User: What shape does this take?
Amino acid sequence: MRSQWGSKIGFILASAGSTIGLGAVWKFPYVTATQGGGAFLLIYLAICLTLGLVLMSTEIAIGRSTQSSPYGAFRKLGGKAWPIVGALGILICFLIISFYSVIGGWTASYFFSTITGATHTAIGSESEANFTAFITNPEQPIYFHLLFALATAGTILFGVQKGIEKLSKYLMPILFILLVVLIIRSITLEGASQGLMEFLAVDFREVTSKTFIEALGLSFFSLSLAMGIMVTYGSYVDGQAGIVPSVIWIIALTLMTCVLSGLMVLPAVSALGLSNSAGPGLTFITMPSVFALMPYGQWFGALFFAALFVAALTSSISLMEVIVSFLIDEFKLARKTAVFITFAGFFTLGVACSLSMGIWEGYKIVGLNLFDFLDKLTQNYLMPIGEIFLAIFAAWIVWPTISNQLKANTPAVAKFLPAIRIFLGIIIPILIGVILLNGFDFEFKINYIYGI
Ligand code: TRP
Assistant: This one.
């Protein structure tokens, strides 16, 4: 008997544990900042609420109908050729967890340096200098990457599910409360209103094909859509719960976290005189400054990074579990062996990612260091391509199964089924295809012609 979620709310919270992580709190603010703010936010929200909603529901339907993990699910439903799509999902999870763990390590390091007061007085450019010194250091970030990777592997190996579930039950709500407190501090800083305006004011003049591809990629990343997690989690859903209402909850919680993080980080960026283009460091540069500027900031800061660490851990566990269960199912490995192989693989690739921001900065792939390359490759290309296949598979190969799953226990969905099928079978492949081709063209020109 396959294990099942105890309740609908259990399923929603576990899925939200996977979706809410570094994507919402770390990636969303800096991507939004580099893409110009309000217009990007709107496009991102629109994509999540349309494509994201349909694709997440479909992934869960595939998992629930086959009661198995992605590789096996595609084989059960589609026969010989389709498991390749499942394999792509597993590869994506492997590439993502490699750099995800490095960032997870940053949260651990910042937790320690905040609680010991080491970085506690740095504001603005000083905080930026701290950050750059830290990530370009060839050793320190790697120790913390190891710590995060061990925490992920250890959780999966020893199944400290009770522990982590308990921990997230307390720390996730704390993260929410902290976000609200920090937003208040952030928007009341002098000069914050400009950042706030940039985040909320919509200006479509700056929108290019690159904006769409970033929004598309970010929506897949932040919603954990890669044909792995949601299929697997869907496979634990019993016959009672309706899929679509749960998905609406999961997406709403994730989007709320994204918007709160944006409100927390972006006003502070302008108030502190930092540049919008700071990229992956943005959260780690602005937030320590905000803590330095508030009473009891050291404690707020330590709590913030602890909560972020746990949020990242619940996401990385979901990434690792996909790979581990694939190795167990397909190669009949013992769980321990599978965990060890996965750990060794992603830890090693992660080390290379971490070094690529420092001493290996000189080695470029299409003009990007390894970290940026893997991030862009998975988020902006592999995930959208995978979802095109998933959509076609659902609409044209196994539609009767999918449609039955989608309408089960939620009769209201039945009316929309023809529309959902057209969306999956025609609109999504064309839309993602066009965005991909345009974006590819654009990045190609930037990287090669201008040599950036
Ligand atoms: N969604 C998570 C975050 O925002 C990251 C994540 C977990 C993920 N599982 C995934 C991303 C699967 C892509 C695919 O932090």
Summary: Residues 18-19, 21-24, 93, 96, 221-222, 224, 226, 229, 315, 318-319 surround tryptophan (CB under 6 Å). The mean pLDDT is 87. The CA atoms of residues 217 and 379 lie 5 Å apart.
